[in-house]
Amino acid sequence: MKKVRSFFRKKDVVLIILIFVVLIFSILVSEKKGSKVVVQGKDFRKILSKPGTYDITENGRFLMKVEFHGNRVRVVESTCPLKLCVKTGWVGPGGTIICVPNEVIIFFEEKTDYDTVTW
Amino acid sequence: MWPSDSNDHRVTRRNVIIFSSLLLGSLAILLTLLLIRTKDQYYELRDFALGTSVRIVVSSQKINPRTIAEAILEDMKRITYKFSFTDERSVVKKINDHPDEWVEVDEETYSLIKAACAFAELTNGAFDPTIGRLLELWGFTGNYENLRVPSREEIEEALKHIGYKNVLFDDKNMRVMVKNGVKIDLGGIAKGYALDRTRQIALSFDENATGFVEAGGDIRIIGPKFGKYPWVIGVKDPREDNVIDYIYLKSGAVATSGDYERYFVVDGVRYHHILDPSTGYPARGVWSVTIVAEDATTADALSTAGFVMAGKDWRKVVLDFPNMGAHPLIVLEGGTIEKSETFKLFERE
Amino acid sequence: MRRITFLSVLTALSSTFYVLENLLPFPVPFGRWGFSNSVVLMIASEIGFGDALIVASAKSILGALFSGRFLSPSFLTGFFGAVSASLVESFLARFDFGYLSLSAMGSFVNNLVQLIVISFLVGSTKTFLLFPLMVILGLVSGTVNAFLASKMGGIVFENYSRFFFAQKKATDGITGDRVRS
């Protein structure tokens, strides 16, 4: 009679470890690979590629301060009354931060698994 | 392994090769078909209109999609001014500034206000376009520079000037009149209307145009992605930056009303802009309501109504709304999610 | 004849899994868990590539037909995923790995191929941001599939060995061997 294949054999460790290596590797790669963030205003369009804190101004007028960490972004400070953009907090790829009074949209260049979000 | 009772069914290397090549061949064909599809590039335009951000994603084989996108944006800006609560050019402001007087309006305005009142009737006032006085009181108009928590007396007083039945229509002459000092605010429906128009505009350029338009979290589909696939739409978590659900739409519209869109906090209490017309205070018990419907006007109006109603009785919303063509997903205070059976159909492609 | 019967039953079983697993929510749009691949896994490990391929493609097509999703995005991901998984699994099975790693590799490949198909459908390469998630999900479904397949294999071959192995001992003497040409 044929030997029935067992659930686990010592050899299995090889493949399992292989998969975990790939997993860790892919996680590291996706963390490091900085995405680009677009800060779009009425008269300007700024692209942030390096992490840091940026002052966003329009025609010399200060609008808001934006902090970019490579794969997340947030508005730290803003001149708008409701400060909803600040309250939005950290946003990752696929998300957007909107400041209606200042007419500024902040979003990531890359797409994600969905086309858009209803909110 | 198989007992040799017949020669035909033997798995020979030859058979496997033939079958595999056939399979791989059809694989290749399918893939190339898919690849050819993705040649349709979608043109994307982001801007501001209707008091919020707008994102237009459109593709057309016939016309330069940029032309379509720009025409759509133009129209949205036009509607922003026309139905604004505060702008000088607004017809709504004109009506509100002439209480107890007949004001002549154009067909677009007439039908929109009538539709708004019809939704008010349908939802027993949960959606009420005459909520202007209350919104003013709280400061949810204009630049939001006057946000405040009004006193109980002020609210009681303002409530006397709320009620969709105070809007009178003259069909023959296309005139509208507001009585009892009520003020019309079309904020809960104008976005939806504008979105429905975007589809009309796109189709008037090219009846095979596809894409979608998103304005402040409300979405109107123009046509399926690449002509045949559904658009993947995430439903945003009302509290965190992630998606709590995915829906797949090839047509129609979806709108969400949430307590996080416009709000301010006083003494640890959040006061948001979706006021309950019966109490005068922000509706409680709900964090967000998402409605899928065939058109954006319905989705927009009923997401507002649904929000007001769900806090008191979400079961009613889940059971009754589908009869009005609106399929709800409700995130109750605390984070529990309830949806209608019909909504679940949109969660599959 | 026995082969056809055997394969049909397994295809039916697999298609049923396929239809049922559609009801389970999957975090990635257009993706699917792949529990129906447990049947394919068993065949790939016990019998061979040919039969595994047959069942893999048949159950994807049938399952999609029954759930009304033929040629839909989820059919495409399911189909290509299952076929690639059966390929990998039957290949690795020759090296005597246990069910767990065969299944893990199979699910890994299944999900990877699903991602590839999805990125074609969506028209973007950034879908691969979801790769780590897919791998983790693959490990989950892989473990489940390994368990299912080993149980199924055990049941089928222990109880119904007579179905497969000729009564006459005087035959080719390759009882229990995986069929090679």
Automatic annotation (TrEMBL), chain A:
Gene3D superfamilies according to UniProt: N-utilization substance G protein NusG, insert domain (2.60.320.10)
Keywords attached to this entry: Membrane, Transmembrane, Transmembrane helix
Spans through the membrane: 12-30
Pfam families membership: NusG_II
InterPro entries noted in UniProt: NusG_2_sf (IPR038690)
Protein name: NusG domain-containing protein
Automatic annotation (TrEMBL), chain B:
Binding-site list for Mg(2+): 188, 300, 304
Keywords from the UniProt entry: FAD, Flavoprotein, Magnesium, Membrane, Metal-binding, Transferase, Transmembrane, Transmembrane helix
InterPro entries, per the entry: ApbE, ApbE-like_sf
Listed EC numbers: 2.7.1.180
Xref: Pfam families: ApbE
Gene3D superfamilies assigned: ApbE-like domains, ApbE-like superfamily
Enzyme class name: transferase
Gene Ontology molecular function, alphabetical: metal ion binding; transferase activity
Cofactors required: Mg(2+); Mn(2+)
Catalytic activity: L-threonyl-[protein] + FAD = FMN-L-threonyl-[protein] + AMP + H(+)
Cited SUPFAM superfamilies: ApbE-like
The keyword Flavoprotein is annotated on this UniProt entry: yes
Transmembrane segments: 16-36
Note on cofactor: Magnesium. Can also use manganese.
Family according to the record: Belongs to the ApbE family.
Name listed for the protein in its UniProt record: FAD:protein FMN transferase
UniProt source species: Thermotoga petrophila
From TrEMBL, chain C:
Pfam families, A to Z: Hpre_diP_synt_I
Keyword Transmembrane helix: yes
InterPro entries assigned: Hpre_diP_synt_I, Hpre_diP_synth_I
Residue spans crossing the bilayer: 35-58, 70-93, 99-122, 129-149
Claim: Transmembrane helix is one of the keywords in the record: yes
Assigned keywords, A-Z: Membrane, Transmembrane, Transmembrane helix
Protein name: Heptaprenyl diphosphate synthase component I
Provenance organism: Thermotoga petrophila (strain ATCC BAA-489 / DSM 13996 / JCM 10882 / RKU-10)
Organism taxonomic ancestry: Bacteria, Thermotogati, Thermotogota, Thermotogae, Thermotogales
